[in-house]
């Protein structure tokens, strides 16, 4: 691999499996300039299309899931590694359906199922946006369901 700084040849210093073996993180060093950088190697997967609520189709983007979960977990005692594991689990389950097109509803439900187990407040925050609560009564219903299941 070429160095992103000078274009020189590089060598691998260290390799680690990440995302439960779904990717490899490599630490590299340039033989010409000596700078170090990290690369991620992931198997190229078949394109996955998400069917939105309004019927639009767009490419699957795990970063959208990550940003939504991070927003829901803001100022909560949730570790970043737990958030990343949640996103990896959702992506793995979506891809394991072997369908090329998946409804956004499936993705949202998978995220909520995992958030519910991870952090109740984050779950309610995510659900309130995802389910588009119209008023405080819908919000209360969701809270009562959450409290009733515990």
TrEMBL record:
Classification via NCBIfam families: transcriptional regulator NrdR
InterPro entries, sorted: ATP-cone_dom, NrdR-like_N, RNR_NrdR-like
GO biological process: negative regulation of DNA-templated transcription
GO terms assigned for molecular function: ATP binding; DNA binding; zinc ion binding
Function: Negatively regulates transcription of bacterial ribonucleotide reductase nrd genes and operons by binding to NrdR-boxes.
A Pfam family assignment: Zn_ribbon_NrdR
Keyword DNA repair applies: no
Family, similarity comment: Belongs to the NrdR family.
Claim: Zinc is one of the keywords in the record: yes
TM annotation in the entry: none
Annotated protein name in UniProt: Transcriptional repressor NrdR
Alphabetic keyword roster: ATP-binding, DNA-binding, Nucleotide-binding, Repressor, Transcription, Transcription regulation, Zinc
Residue span, ATP-cone domain: 48-138
């Amino acid at each position: 691999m070429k160095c992103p700084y000078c274009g020189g040849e590089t060598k691998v210093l260290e390799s680690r499996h990440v995302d439960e073996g779904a990717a490899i993180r490599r630490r590299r060093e340039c033989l010409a300039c000596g700078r170090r950088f990290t690369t991620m190697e992931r198997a190229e997967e078949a394109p996955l299309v998400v069917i939105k609520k309004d019927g639009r189709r767009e490419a699957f983007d795990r970063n959208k899931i990550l940003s939504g979960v991070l927003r829901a977990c803001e100022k909560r005692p949730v570790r970043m590694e737990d958030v990343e594991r949640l996103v990896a689990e959702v992506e793995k389950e979506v891809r394991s359906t072997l369908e090329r097109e998946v409804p956004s509803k499936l993705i949202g439900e998978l995220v909520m199922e995992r958030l519910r187990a991870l952090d109740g407040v984050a779950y309610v925050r995510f659900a309130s946006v995802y389910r588009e609560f119209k008023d405080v009564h819908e919000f209360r219903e969701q809270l009562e369901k959450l409290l009733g299941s515990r």
